[in-house]
């Protein structure tokens, strides 16, 4: 059989040669397949953690295209994820999904899916993982054929494929060391966007404080995530920035840091209070509780974070207590990284996150039934004299927030911006392309009038505004 680029058996004309994985068998088809006469039939129920995989020889730093044909009678709102050199959320190469607007319909026939990626090792193993879905849809048995892995002729390019980031605290005291976090992140849209690249580079550090104590260099080793944290000390009061530059002249400028003689009493801290995990609709690409806290602290450089998984609809009290609460305690480091216990619950009065003072199971509002209203939840907390912070989000979308609901003790903040867009006022305030056309963002809906943050202010509701991720991709912050 003719090979598909770098794959000698991409159309399975030679059986499973070069492939491995449970739940997959080669079938001969009477009707012509996309390539040849054989296809691979896969039963997701029998797939193991390694999925269906093949190995390929690559050139680090070069771009490749991975494409395949899939025939899934119930593709629906389902993703097929491809990983390289591992199975963590940060090893994902691409995320492929079924055609939009076909949820609940019948067979869609053979579909072609393709994506590009940068190689980071001379030999890599690619894994087609067990399909996942947003709403629990089942893909059922499906067929693969005509898998191709081909070089595009492009090399990894700074600014198009990856960029450096340099993060400093917003304030520092002269003569006291602070942390400089430097990362090299994939920035090309796709399954890898925002995760650390595995690249080799040596960066110099420079700044506008002539008396600052700076490291001589920062080194990223190929094959390892490009993440490094070092200490720097500013000695001159004022507003300063640092610049990191590699041998090719590619550089990144840090955020400004305000240096004073003594550390100010009031300081700026940065965080993400709305993080979802694998236990919600995001599937494996959303990562578990540890993946998300680790990324928030070590890659995004946040000062605080909170897991706010959908309670009752997606996780049980047992999962929350044994996984979410345990991780929240484990990652809490006073003065270094603050974690909050959180949950999310939506009713006809809006989607709200609840941030708890403790992980006492009696503080959870589930009571074995999904709450009928947000007011019921807050009444429950009042009855127990619990201190809880209640934060509504995507105010004019899905179940919009009810501004007649008012509780001065609990309701002090609103999440004005997130992955869903801006809910400050109606309009197409949207930047992230991944949700466009989904009906699940403000660009599509325009936002429902009477429910935005400005509408609430006009009604006399005095609540602060924050921005959070509402992320489902293991990339908080």
From TrEMBL:
Sequence ranges assigned to domain CBM-cenC in this UniProt record: 6-73
Any GO molecular function: hydrolase activity, acting on glycosyl bonds
One Pfam family this sequence matches: CBM_4_9
UniProt cross-references to SUPFAM superfamilies, sorted A to Z: Galactose-binding domain-like, PHP domain-like
Keywords: Hydrolase
Full protein name: CBM-cenC domain-containing protein
């Amino acid at each position: 059989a003719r090979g598909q680029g770098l794959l000698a058996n991409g159309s399975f004309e030679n059986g499973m040669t070069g492939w491995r994985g449970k739940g997959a068998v080669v079938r001969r088809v009477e009707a012509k397949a996309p390539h040849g006469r054989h296809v691979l039939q896969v039963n997701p129920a029998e797939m193991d953690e390694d999925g269906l995989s093949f190995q390929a020889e690559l050139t680090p730093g070069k771009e490749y295209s991975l494409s395949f044909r899939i025939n899934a009678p119930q593709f629906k709102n389902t993703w097929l994820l491809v990983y390289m050199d591992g199975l963590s959320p940060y090893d994902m190469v691409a995320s492929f999904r079924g055609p939009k607007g076909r949820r609940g319909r019948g067979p869609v026939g053979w579909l072609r899916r393709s994506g590009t990626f940068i190689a980071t090792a001379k030999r890599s193993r690619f894994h087609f993982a067990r399909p996942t879905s947003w709403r629990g849809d089942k893909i059922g048995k499906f067929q693969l054929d005509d898998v191709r892995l081909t070089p595009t002729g492009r090399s990894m390019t700074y600014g198009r494929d990856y960029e450096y980031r340099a993060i400093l605290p917003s304030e520092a005291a002269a003569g006291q060391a602070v942390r400089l976090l430097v990362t090299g992140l994939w920035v090309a849209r796709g399954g890898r966007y925002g995760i650390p690249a595995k690249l080799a580079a040596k960066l110099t550090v420079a700044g506008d404080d002539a008396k600052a104590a700076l490291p001589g260099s920062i080194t990223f080793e190929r094959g390892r995530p490009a993440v490094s944290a070092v200490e720097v000390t500013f000695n001159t009061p004022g507003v300063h920035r640092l610049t990191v530059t590699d041998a090719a002249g590619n550089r990144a400028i840090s955020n400004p840091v305000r240096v004073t003689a003594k550390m100010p009493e009031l300081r700026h801290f940065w965080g993400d209070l709305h993080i979802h995990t694998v236990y919600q609709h995001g599937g494996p690409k959303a990562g578990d509780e540890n993946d998300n806290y680790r990324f928030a602290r070590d890659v995004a450089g946040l000062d605080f974070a909170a897991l706010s998984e959908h309670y009752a609809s997606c996780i049980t009290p047992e999962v929350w207590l044994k996984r979410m609460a345990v991780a929240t305690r484990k990652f809490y480091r006073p003065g270094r990284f603050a974690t909050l216990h959180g949950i999310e619950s939506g009713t006809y009065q809006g989607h709200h996150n609840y941030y708890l003072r403790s992980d006492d199971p009696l503080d959870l509002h589930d009571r074995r039934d999904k709450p009928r209203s947000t007011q019921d939840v807050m009444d429950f907390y009042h009855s127990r004299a619990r201190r809880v912070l209640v934060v509504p989000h995507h105010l004019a979308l899905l179940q919009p927030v009810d501004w007649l609901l008012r509780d001065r003790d609990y309701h002090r903040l609103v999440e004005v911006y997130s992955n869903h867009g801006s809910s400050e006022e109606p309009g197409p305030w949207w930047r992230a392309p991944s949700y466009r056309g989904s009906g699940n963002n403000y660009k599509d809906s325009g936002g429902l009038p009477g429910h935005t943050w400005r509408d609430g202010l006009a009604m006399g509701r005095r609540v602060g505004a924050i921005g959070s991720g509402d992320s489902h991709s293991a990339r908080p912050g």
